[in-house]
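Handout, section 4.2: multi-component inputs.
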Amino acid sequence: MTTMTAAMPVRARDVLASEWIKLRSVRSTYLTLLVAAAAAVVVGYLVTHSDVTHWATMTRQQRAAFDPVSDSFSGLGLAQLAFGALGVLAICSEYTTGQIRTTFAAVPRRRSVLAAKAAVAGGVTLVAGELVALATFFTGQWALSARHLDVTIAHPGALRGVLAAGFYLAVMAWVGLGLGAIIRHTAGAITAMTAVVFLVPTIIHALPAPWNVSIGKYTLNLAAQQMIAQHPTPGYFAAAPSFLIVAAYAAAAIAAGASLITRRDA
Amino acid sequence: MIEVCELTKRYGTAVAVDELSFTVQPGQVTGFLGPNGAGKSTTMRVILGLDAPSSGQATVNGRPYQRLSRPLHQVGALLDAGAVHGGRTAHSHLLSIAASNGIGRRRVAKVLGTVGLEDVAAKRVRGFSLGMKQRLGIAAALLGDPPVLMFDEPVNGLDPEGIHWIRGLLKSLAAEGRTMFVSSHLMSEMALTADHLIVIGRGRLVADSPIAEFVEQNSRTDVLVRSPAGGQLAGLLTRRGATVTAQTDGGLAVTGLDAAKIGDVASAHAITLHELTTRHASLEEAFMDLTRDSVEYHADVTADTRKAA
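Output:
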């Protein structure tokens, strides 16, 4: 019986190692990332290809509003759900199976567990998100190059847009993790996440002007669009404030999860 | 050592654990016995810091669980064998738990061997039988080589060979000086493995005694007597300190006097006896008697019969 080692506290590094093993030892991690990458690249290609085909028939306003960077990220709407699902599963798979009790018995400081999950899922999805964003960008620009509508990554604002798209995907994983910690049921958390990114914008879009914009600019995915866009839409925030709004969603979801996680019975 | 002190746990208006106090000593197997719904699992969850007590407290080795550093080195617990992510292999599952407390791969391999799962270590847990999952749960509990072990219904789902194995494991771990706290709803199982018994019913302590003492106190015996002069005999026996209960079939159930003395009394008064039988209530029956008033899901339970045992 190793009572000597018992004097040592649970180390952050150990909790991180544990969460890293958990994330890489289930198929769903690879599956969600693969689905996200495929959706982003394929939809991005289809949309850019379609714009190339229809360029000749587009109006002057449509051509003026054309944004080659945003256009290539048209598949982000699907990819964001897969990334969000990865975040949800990182915690809800434990609540659903009951394994969370084993986890909390091993690490009684529950916020350390959530922090380690946020760090590991965040790190993995940030790297994966940036890779998906780069692949999506280059595929889209390649399709647009048929009519010389493409931009290079060195074009002002292009790299920022690509990095922002990757960051947004990681934010979706954090939002998913936070909602998962709050709701503790996979289906419920995924429904809530879908409502945040799809239902809320739909409702806000239906609001009379100027409310649709003055409230809309604070919503997660409209702010994300401004963060990626080459030029901000009139009435909306520029890229930098939009970045802060997007980051605030991740922080708020994780903080809410952290405040509830210690108050409830496991 | 595990100490539970005036522990109460309420879920809304339902009281799961009611002012429960007991101590679990090292070096022996302590059976934690009670009917389903008696509050055994709740008590264990509170001990592990998973559920917050409504009042009172539980400590392990003198400290609340939340204040234990690297708790797997101090307490190993198996609560629910099914509570495992099915998509993970047995090895990855154990490795993820081990890593959180700084326990290495070699120890993971060792506990897989201890529970006999080394051949399926690379298989996904989804395909495991309940018995295999029980073994995996025990392996997880043993990871930190802890001095205190807590198993909730470890025999559930095991085949006869597995049951035999776990009995041996429990005894050998206790012989190493560990505190073994094992719950069950089966008296017969506890009679075979436990050295000490803590019995609860409806969240309250019903008995806390060494198994031998429990058996002696609770395996009630009585003597069944049949006689054509039953009424006369009952009076004579009662005068000698016996308690006589008339059976519906005309027999007398006598406690406080053994069969020989009853025979002597009958003979001295020339009373004919048709039957004189010593009856032993089994431990199982004793347990049922003890917890009868506290079984939560009685067929005929009503609000005002909810008396504490």
